[in-house]
Amino acid sequence: NQLEEAQTALAGPLYADVGGDLEVSFEFFPPKSEKMEEQLWDAIRTLEPLGPRFVSVTYGAGGSTRERTHATVARIQRETSLAAAAHLTCVEATKEEIDQVAEEYWAAGVRHIVALRGDPPRAGEKYQTHPGGYENAAALVAGLKKLHPFEISVAAYPECHPDSADAAADLDNLRAKMDAGATRAITQFFHEPETFFRYRDQVAAAGIDAEIVPGIMPVTNFAAVKRMSAMCGTEVPAWLGRLFEGLDDHPASRQLVAATIAAELSRRLYAGGVKQLHFYTLNRAELAFAICHLLGVRSRDEKAKAAA
Ligand code: FAD
User: Ligand 1 centre and the CA of 136: distance in Å?
Assistant: First the structure.
């Protein structure tokens, strides 16, 4: 029982269990203004020394950030030591248009795509395949694999995607994405470690043998996260709401509370055998940096100093 194992592992001295063998990746979104661009690059430069496996850049709803996502991914690939992954969705585009975007990534040296279906352009509507477009993420993965030997990550849903009839259909869809050529799934955010452990067991029981990486969203704005959780079917535990009561006018405290909760969630996942985490950074470096630090992730310089 993975939950009991995790609890036993956590019973010792605080943070004695962090081993430095955790691998991390970071997600950013493409900036809309010069000021946001500065914030993004500050985040990238702060997190780069931690040696993440990759960093990814999201693709705006309906392909609205196509150029900005491309420019950001290409610049990361060109100007940093990081491996950049580009998110790509099927929304509002023909196969030819999407293939063209992928070709541009390949030409820019980008070898990793996070392949997604995307959401309908207008919230609340049913997803419709664009005429001549890819019908879902599995079809997109297959299309990308035909173009080039990209490394491909896809999305996974520990609490089931709202469009799935049930958990079994959701797992069948994950299997289809893996069979089409994806090598890893990154999960939607969730709030309790048990949610992930249960899902990992379901994935294994379904015979899906892929790397499932928990997506960690540090919660600083409870109202916003509650809205997002409702849209994607993520359970919000009562304790989370209570922790944010009375903090509306205390943004600095909210950051500290967010770091504490996300570090605790990450530490429990690690105690349960998770060795890879993906952080939704929202382009702010400090939270992800502090959480990684608590989990024993150190910069290359620090590791060299410790080894000397
Ligand atoms: P899919 O895996 O294709 O499927 C979604 C659902 O539809 C599944 O429940 C599946 O069961 C059902 N389904 C699929 N095909 C069929 C079919 N043929 N018949 C019946 N049912 C079917 N969105 C963005 O716009 N930009 C991003 O950059 C972005 N990044 C993300 C990163 C991560 C890690 C995650 C978890 C999500 C991200 N999303 C992003 C959100 C994502 O686009 C939405 O969750 C979307 O609704 C589903 O995308 P998917 O790739 O999971 O879809």
Answer: 7
